[in-house]
């Protein structure tokens, strides 16, 4: 009996539970507020596309070359007595480098001076003889022949004096050439003839001086880059001239050279093996920091892109169809726009096609944007430092 009562109680409890469950499911839920059901549009940072004059520096690899290499050769021969500098040292123009034995040239100078004295004595005698003959001729005592002979002797004596004076000048020059000085300022070669060597005039190479100030920097650019620059110049109202360009130089661990340079010249031919055009820049080098053969990087400043639209890098997304950006309509609805990129500059990407003046481009919060959905735009402010400019094909 008790067991039946227990089973009945359990059955009633289950029935009551099932009734309450169905009752609660049939009751309508309280309506939610409109503010709780609708999600607010995401906030995004935007920039407005505006064409502007954009700096477009170009960077190339280059090597330093000496401004010129000067060979030092003697103008007179003889025995090398002394070297007045350290091999490989830096010398200045006019500094004494070598001394050649001057003994034979001193003797030649003494002989020339003695010949001058002899010629001067002969000239004095010839002039006195001509003076007497001229006086006798006026008195009618001497003849025309005697007067002409006296005049001829005087003129020959004068010529002999002039010749002796020229011989003295030549002897002094040769004597001075025994002291060899530096024809330019620069760094000398590491090898030179040993002291005691017999030097031959204009043949023996004493040393080579590499002039370092200013310094040349050789670099090359491709034919395509040259054509692109010419096409860019044709689109400009005022073409860019060489005088408008300045050059920066970087060497070592990204260190910048303090002096600015300029373009010196460029070859008028394309290398058939490399397809490049050789160019040369010139930089002041008063302290000799730039050394021949040194590897450097040259950055050309002064080139600009006219009427270029630049957008930050983070605004661009890459997809199967190419690069794209989100552009906002008048009602702040985002839509995808395929674009064609140009070169990369310091502020971001140059857009060649796909954007127009005044269009708003999403830069910050791109991952929160969905095509066809509204957003809440706010002005974008770049917080990161722009990267260096580089060349990227569009």
From TrEMBL:
<dbReference type="InterPro" id="IPR058627">
    <property type="entry name" value="MdtA-like_C"/>
</dbReference>
<keyword id="KW-0175">Coiled coil</keyword>
<feature type="domain" description="Multidrug resistance protein MdtA-like beta-barrel">
    <location>
        <begin position="244"/>
        <end position="300"/>
    </location>
</feature>
<feature type="coiled-coil region">
    <location>
        <begin position="109"/>
        <end position="174"/>
    </location>
</feature>
<dbReference type="InterPro" id="IPR058624">
    <property type="entry name" value="MdtA-like_HH"/>
</dbReference>
<protein>
    <submittedName>
        <fullName>Membrane fusion protein, multidrug efflux system</fullName>
    </submittedName>
</protein>
<dbReference type="Pfam" id="PF25876">
    <property type="entry name" value="HH_MFP_RND"/>
</dbReference>
<dbReference type="Pfam" id="PF25917">
    <property type="entry name" value="BSH_RND"/>
</dbReference>
<feature type="domain" description="Multidrug resistance protein MdtA-like alpha-helical hairpin">
    <location>
        <begin position="109"/>
        <end position="178"/>
    </location>
</feature>
<dbReference type="GO" id="GO:0015562">
    <property type="term" value="F:efflux transmembrane transporter activity"/>
</dbReference>
<dbReference type="InterPro" id="IPR058626">
    <property type="entry name" value="MdtA-like_b-barrel"/>
</dbReference>
<dbReference type="GO" id="GO:0005886">
    <property type="term" value="C:plasma membrane"/>
</dbReference>
<dbReference type="InterPro" id="IPR058625">
    <property type="entry name" value="MdtA-like_BSH"/>
</dbReference>
<comment type="similarity">
    <text>Belongs to the membrane fusion protein (MFP) (TC 8.A.1) family.</text>
</comment>
<feature type="domain" description="Multidrug resistance protein MdtA-like C-terminal permuted SH3">
    <location>
        <begin position="307"/>
        <end position="366"/>
    </location>
</feature>
<dbReference type="Pfam" id="PF25967">
    <property type="entry name" value="RND-MFP_C"/>
</dbReference>
<dbReference type="GO" id="GO:0030313">
    <property type="term" value="C:cell envelope"/>
</dbReference>
<feature type="domain" description="Multidrug resistance protein MdtA-like barrel-sandwich hybrid">
    <location>
        <begin position="68"/>
        <end position="205"/>
    </location>
</feature>
<dbReference type="GO" id="GO:0046677">
    <property type="term" value="P:response to antibiotic"/>
</dbReference>
<dbReference type="InterPro" id="IPR006143">
    <property type="entry name" value="RND_pump_MFP"/>
</dbReference>
<dbReference type="Pfam" id="PF25944">
    <property type="entry name" value="Beta-barrel_RND"/>
</dbReference>
